[in-house]
Structure formats: structure tokens, C-alpha cells
């Protein structure tokens, strides 16, 4: 019975610990523009609280009176129940404290800080109690595998069983009730241990070779009581740190071109947990031979994917990146298990590992964006793991200069040289680079037969181009004559003047369409985009229109504009509203929900045009927009153009309107594409209920 209480409490805590992570991060996406850094910053919070939880368990282990440990933990658990209502409230929009990262960390702590802290401490603390109660030096590690298995189930169930069928508000409510059951299980266990406090008093012995066979501890192997070496303690931190850097950098690379969502967060994190299960299982699944054989392939594949991964389809990217993660993380955690101590030193070991993981999170979330212009932390993690494996396995080879040692030394030279060569090719046309919370941007300048082409690249996607030293109109190249946006603008510009708004500034190409009588408002979230559009391109300074740039998320800004006036609608309604807000190739999902759609039409005239850029190699947004239009009894038109030369850009657009004259125009009828394939796959997203899975292009 007692073993069952230990097991069910550990399993429940692990399940809750990882089920809440995608819930909270998804809840934050709309506030911060749907960017991929929301997840990495959230992971920093989770890792920090995990470290504090492990520190809590470590400190509790120093309290000699076990009854005092039990009473103290019970008080913490009861106190945490009083804070659960914070999770169920809709958190207020937090103004920037100093940075987006700081605001996210504070918001997460206010929502679930204390419960998450206690959940983090549960597994380690209960394993410590179990080893003391049962007087077993090696019996607690299987609980670690069970807790990771429960965490894995929690993660995998979310995108496939939870997110597609249950809204965010209901998810939080279910989690809260499950947390209550966890507290009940934990309190029952504590009461059981308190009543039967026959804990074995167990000393932290140091093995001595002079011990005789009559010693009461002679059945324990020397390995269990050896004091961990400095090298082992260093590996307790370094291996988890590199594994976390790899996990977070791969997740960011995946979400650059595909909309950040729980699905793309959870698959890598699930494989990361699976690697812990493989490494710490008593079944000896980790055998270094097969895994180390795969490692050189993963190193080469990492270089390939880092520079050319965006050219692959979504399924290929997901498969390759996650294969690299699984192999390398299994190696990290398999080697970590080899240097893990006996059960009596569990709290210290887990504390070191958690500290390493948190430092990896700090490096990716805080330090790397300040040091690197690209996601250079990914190749750094691969190279770091290669270096550590050499330290573990090649010292003797180097001394004797055998084949293994020579190969390892040569690789230390070849790998950085290969990265430098590829990086030079990739960035040779760059004239400006900026990286911040919202992503990384570059401005590339290329000589063409038509003149000098200057392009704004967000991640791997071009977000505007201008030709210099030529008479060719750059706007006609980036937004061709048959594109949906060009058709929409020509239609509304039949009027004397127009009032237009654009969510997403890019290089400011749309400012080039402005006439002296037009008013144009840009909504831009990323300050780096504004800086580059103003300093590297001429569209904004040369436009004839009256322009305004509003910094902040477009949907949030439009919502605030509705609240400020006392009237139900803004005074100057829009003739056209354009949604072109990509982060690299990803489209923030909060801009495509029913609630967002309703906000847009409060700003648009009755016969206004809502124009959405839907070009994406990885998700099909068209069914969402056609479903929204049909739900509102409006007409949706779909336009797609192919890239016919290296001087123009293919694109896909959807235009939603009540204006029958737009639909009836000869030009529109000529260019509009039929969508028979989409009619059976229409769905509507809401703020509370949306999933990327049904619209993925595999």
C-alpha cells in the first residue's frame, strides 16, 4: 500500500508538472505576438522552478527529524491550494517590466509559481524518503524512470487528446482539480509515514578497503559509497546543460517556419524525456556502442539542417531535428547515469542536474540573443557534446596517439572550420543583422541584372525587397500585378482617398502604394523591424501617403483603439485591413481566431476588404479564413501566384469582403482560384480553442 502511495504521488506530480507547461505557454502567445521565444522563456521559468524544487528537497534532507520534514511539506501543500485560483483567473496584460522575458517570468510565477515549485520537489523528496524508509540504496532510481514516463504521457496527450477537444479555460480547471487530488495523495502518504516513522537511520559512509565481510554494509558495492569525483560532479551539470541547450535551440529552429504551437514544443520535449527514461532505466537500454555510432551522422546532419533546413517540408524538418535530439540527448543522459551516485546522494545529484539545466536555459533565453545574430547555440551544443565525449572516452587514445585519438583531434579542427565556411557562404551578402526576443533579422544585398536588390530576411523568409540603381518599381516585383494584395489595393484605390491599416511592417513595401490623399497605419510588434525598415529601405521616407507606425501587437492595438472612444466604433473606419504579420514563415495564430476576426470588422467599413497573406510551406490557413467568412455571411476569394523568375515572389492571399463589385470584377474572376479541396476541411479557431494539427502540411 505504501509503495503504491509513493508511486501514484510521484506519477501524478510528474504528469501535472509537464501538462501545465504547454497550457501556460499557449496562454501567453497572444500577449507576445505568437513568437517562438515565448516557449524558450517559459522553459527558463520551468527549469528555474525545477531547480528551486530540487533545492527544496536537498535542504529538507538535512533536517534530521523526519517528522519535521513531513509536517513542513504538509504545510506547504495546504498553502499552495489557496493559490490555485490565480491560475483560473484570466491574467491581466502585463506591461513590460524591463524586457518581454522578465514580464513572462513574472506572469508565470503569479499564475502557478508555488504549486509548480512543490510539484518539482515531489519526486526527489519522495525518492529520498523511500530510500530511507526501505533502507534501499539503489531502489529509488526506478521512480525516476516512472516520473519521466508520466511526464512523457502528459506531454504527448496534450496536442493529440487535450488541445483538439478542450478549450484553455477548461484545461486549467481540469488541471486544478487534478492538482487537488495530488495534494490529497501526498497528504495521505505523509500521514502514513508520520504514523509509522520507523525510518532507517542511515549514515553517509565512505567505503574503506579494510572493511571485513562481517561488516553490516559488506553487501553494498564500493561504487555505491565512493565519494563522487570532481569530474563526476562537473558532468552532473555539464551534460544536462548541453542537452537543454540542444532541446531549446532545436525547438526554436522548428518554430521559425511553422507557427509556434504546443505540438512543436511537445514533440522535442517528449523525446528529451524519453532520453532520460532510456538513460536511467534499469533495463540497460543505453549501450554506448550503437548510440555513439549514430553520433557522427547527427553532427553532419546538424550542420546541414542549420543552414538548409528551411528548404525541407515540415515533416522532414520535424523528423530530422527530432532524430538528432533523441540520439544526442540519449547519449548525454546515458553518460549522466554512468556517473550518477547511489541513492543516498540523490538530492545533491538532482540539484546539480537541475542547476545545469537551468544554466542551459539561461544561455539560450538570455545570453545567446545578446552574443549571436543567429541561433548559433545549436551548433555550439553539438560541438560541446562532441568535446565532452572526447574528454570521457579519448584521454588515453590521445596519449598513445592511436587512430581514435587522431580522429578526435582532427574532428576538433574540421567541425569548427566546416561551420565557419558554411556560415560565411550563408551570410556573405549580409549588410545588417539584429537578433532580439522576437527573432533574428538580416538585410541582404545582392547584385542582379536589374540593379542592386536589398532584402529584409526574418529568419529564413524574405519580408520585403527594394531595387536600387534602377528605374524598375520595386513594389511591382515584391507584390506582383496578379497577387491578391495588388488586386485589392487597385480596387479600393478607385476611390479618391483610402484609409488603410497593415499588421506587419516588413520593409515597408506597402507604403509604396500610398497616394497623397491616402492614410496608412502600420502595426509592428518588433522594434528591430521598424529600425531596419527606416534605416535600410526608402519606402517609408518616400511614400506620398500620410503614414503612422504604431508599435505593439496589431490585434492588441486595434482592441485598445476600440476601447478608447466612447463610441462603439472608431470614427475613421478602414477601407482595407491587411494582415501580413509573419515571424519568419510562421503566422501568429491569435490573429486568425474568431475573436480577432470580429475586432477587424469593427474597424472596417461595411464594404471594406480584409486581406490576409497566407503563404506558408508548412500550414494551410485557407480553410480557417473561408470558414470565418462563411460564418459571417461574407465572400472569401483565394489568389495564388507562382514564382516565375528570381526577381519576383510567388504568394497566396485571401480577401474577405461584402463588396460584390470586387468579386464581380473581370480581373478578380480571371485570377481567383477555386477551392473545392478546402470545402470539406473548414474549421474555426477561437482564442480558447485552436490547434495546429488539422492544418499542417506534411
Q: Can you tag this structure with a few keywords?
A:
11% strand, seven-stranded mixed β-sheet, 698 residues, single chain, globular, 11 strands, alpha/beta
Q: Structural class of the secondary elements?
A: alpha/beta
Whole-number mean pLDDT: 83
Structural shape = globular
Q: Biggest sheet, in brief?
A: 7 strands, mixed
Strand order of the largest sheet: 7-6-5-8-9-11-10
Strand content: 5-15%
Task: Summarize, please.
With about 700 residues, the chain is an alpha/beta fold. It is built from 25 helices and 11 strands. The strands form 2 sheets. A 7-stranded mixed β-sheet has the order 7-6-5-8-9-11-10, with helices on both faces. A 4-stranded antiparallel β-sheet has the order 1-2-3-4.
Describe the structure.
- By secondary structure, this protein is α/β, with parallel strands linked by helices.
- The chain is built from 25 helices and 11 strands.
- The protein has helices at residues 2-28, 37-60, 66-81, 85-88, 100-134, 141-162, 168-195, 222-225, 230-257, 262-280, 288-308, 314-338, 346-371, 377-393, 395-400, 403-427, 474-478, 484-492, 527-536, 539-542, 554-563, 594-603, 622-631, 660-664, 666-671, and strands at 430-436, 439-448, 451-458, 461-468, 499-503, 519-524, 546-551, 574-579, 604-613, 635-641, 651-657.
- The strands form 2 sheets. It has a 7-stranded mixed beta sheet, with helices on both faces. A 4-stranded antiparallel beta sheet has the order 1-2-3-4.
Amino acid at each position: 500500500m505504501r509503495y503504491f502511495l509513493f508511486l501514484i504521488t510521484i506519477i501524478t506530480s510528474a504528469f501535472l508538472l509537464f501538462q501545465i507547461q504547454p497550457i501556460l505557454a499557449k496562454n501567453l502567445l497572444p500577449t507576445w505576438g505568437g513568437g517562438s521565444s515565448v516557449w524558450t522563456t517559459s522553459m527558463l521559468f520551468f527549469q528555474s522552478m525545477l531547480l528551486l524544487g530540487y533545492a527544496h528537497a536537498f535542504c529538507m534532507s538535512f533536517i534530521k527529524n523526519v517528522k519535521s520534514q513531513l509536517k513542513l511539506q504538509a504545510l506547504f501543500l495546504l498553502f499552495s491550494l489557496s493559490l490555485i485560483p490565480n491560475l483560473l483567473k484570466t491574467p491581466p496584460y502585463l506591461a513590460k517590466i524591463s524586457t518581454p522575458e522578465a514580464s513572462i517570468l513574472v506572469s508565470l510565477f503569479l499564475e502557478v509559481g508555488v504549486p509548480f515549485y512543490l510539484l518539482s520537489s515531489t519526486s526527489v523528496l519522495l525518492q529520498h524518503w523511500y530510500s530511507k524508509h526501505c533502507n534501499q540504496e539503489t531502489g529509488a532510481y526506478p521512480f525516476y524512470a516512472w516520473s519521466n514516463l508520466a511526464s512523457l504521457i502528459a506531454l504527448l496527450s496534450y496536442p493529440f487528446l487535450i488541445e483538439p477537444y478542450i478549450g484553455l479555460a477548461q484545461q486549467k480547471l481540469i488541471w486544478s482539480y487534478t492538482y487537488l487530488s495530488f495534494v490529497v495523495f501526498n497528504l495521505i502518504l505523509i500521514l502514513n509515514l508520520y504514523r509509522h516513522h520507523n525510518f532507517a537511520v542511515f549514515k553517509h559512509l565512505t567505503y574503506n578497503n579494510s572493511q571485513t565481510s562481517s561488516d553490516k554494509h559488506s553487501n553494498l558495492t564500493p561504487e555505491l559509497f565512493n565519494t563522487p569525483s570532481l569530474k563526476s560532479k562537473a558532468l552532473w551539470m555539464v551534460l544536462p546543460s548541453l542537452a537543454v541547450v540542444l532541446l531549446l535551440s532545436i525547438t526554436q529552429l522548428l518554430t521559425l517556419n511553422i507557427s509556434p504551437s504546443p505540438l512543436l514544443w511537445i514533440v522535442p520535449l517528449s523525446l528529451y524525456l524519453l532520453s532520460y527514461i532510456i538513460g536511467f532505466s534499469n533495463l540497460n537500454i543505453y549501450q554506448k556502442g550503437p548510440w555513439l555510432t549514430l553520433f557522427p551522422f547527427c553532427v553532419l546532419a546538424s550542420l546541414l539542417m542549420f543552414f538548409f533546413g528551411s528548404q525541407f517540408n515540415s515533416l522532414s524538418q520535424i523528423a530530422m531535428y527530432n532524430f538528432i535530439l533523441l540520439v544526442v540527448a540519449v547519449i548525454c543522459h546515458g553518460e549522466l547515469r554512468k556517473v550518477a551516485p547511489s541513492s543516498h546522494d540523490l538530492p545533491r545529484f538532482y540539484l546539480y542536474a537541475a542547476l545545469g539545466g537551468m544554466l542551459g536555459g539561461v544561455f539560450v533565453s538570455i545570453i545567446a540573443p545578446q552574443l549571436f545574430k543567429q541561433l548559433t547555440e545549436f551548433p555550439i551544443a553539438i560541438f560541446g557534446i562532441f568535446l565532452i565525449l572526447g574528454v570521457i572516452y579519448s584521454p588515453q587514445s590521445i596519449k598513445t596517439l592511436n587512430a581514435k585519438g587522431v580522429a578526435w583531434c582532427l574532428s576538433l579542427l574540421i567541425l569548427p572550420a566546416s561551420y565557419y565556411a558554411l556560415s560565411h557562404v550563408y551570410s556573405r551578402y549580409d549588410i545588417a543583422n539584429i537578433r532580439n526576443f522576437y527573432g533574428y533579422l538580416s538585410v541582404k544585398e545582392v547584385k542582379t541584372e536589374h540593379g542592386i536588390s536589398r532584402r529584409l530576411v526574418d529568419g529564413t523568409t524574405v519580408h520585403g525587397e527594394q531595387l536600387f540603381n534602377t528605374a524598375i518599381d520595386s513594389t511591382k516585383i515584391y507584390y506582383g500585378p496578379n497577387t491578391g494584395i495588388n488586386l485589392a489595393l487597385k480596387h479600393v484605390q478607385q476611390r479618391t482617398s483610402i484609409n488603410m491599416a497593415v499588421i506587419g511592417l516588413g520593409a515597408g513595401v506597402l507604403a509604396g502604394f500610398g497616394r497623397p490623399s491616402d492614410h496608412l497605419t502600420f502595426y509592428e510588434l518588433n522594434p528591430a523591424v521598424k529600425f531596419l525598415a527606416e534605416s535600410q529601405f526608402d519606402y517609408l521616407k518616400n511614400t506620398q501617403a500620410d503614414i503612422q507606425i504604431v508599435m505593439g501587437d496589431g490585434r492588441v492595438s486595434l482592441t485598445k483603439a476600440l476601447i478608447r472612444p466612447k463610441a462603439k466604433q472608431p470614427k475613421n473606419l478602414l477601407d482595407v485591413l491587411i494582415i501580413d504579420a509573419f515571424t519568419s514563415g510562421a503566422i501568429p495564430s491569435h490573429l486568425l481566431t474568431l475573436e480577432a476576426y470580429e475586432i477587424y470588422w469593427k474597424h472596417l467599413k461595411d464594404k471594406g476588404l480584409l486581406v490576409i497573406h497566407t503563404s506558408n510551406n508548412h500550414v494551410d490557413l485557407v480553410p480557417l479564413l473561408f470558414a470565418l467568412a462563411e460564418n459571417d455571411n461574407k465572400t472569401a476569394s483565394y489568389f495564388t501566384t507562382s514564382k516565375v523568375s528570381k526577381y519576383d515572389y510567388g504568394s497566396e492571399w485571401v480577401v474577405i469582403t461584402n463588396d460584390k463589385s470586387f468579386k464581380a470584377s473581370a480581373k478578380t474572376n480571371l485570377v481567383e482560384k477555386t477551392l473545392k479541396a478546402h470545402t470539406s476541411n473548414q474549421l474555426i479557431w477561437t482564442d480558447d480553442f485552436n490547434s495546429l494539427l488539422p492544418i499542417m502540411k506534411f
